[in-house]
Amino acid sequence: MNLPENLQYTKEHTWVSIKDGIATIGITDFAQSELGDIVYVDIEQMDETIAADETFGSVEAVKTVSDLFMPIEGEIFEFNEALEDDPELINTDPYGKGWIIKAKVSEASVEGLLSVEKYKELVNG
Which tens digits make up the pLDDT trace of 53-64? Predict the structure, then answer.
């Protein structure tokens, strides 16, 4: 399982990278492998401030639909438009070209985010 050391994670299997008050958010390699082939991404709250742990959209795979949970509070201002034509980028490059949204972090609150070590403990039981 691919888990970059420079990211932070949540128990809902999202990852976040924060730089200069901007959070880039996606789902983990573990999550995409559990979902299977992703066919559609729906972001419901563009240009809105979403609280941590609130739903901001969903990913649809061949087998199921899964909600996306905000890892930190922030205002979603950008959706990865490449996913409209190529949603499987989440499967092939979840930490790179498969990022899902960018948000302005309203509070640099990283409480509740997991280090790579803690996330590994979560998924490996």
Answer: 999 999 999 989
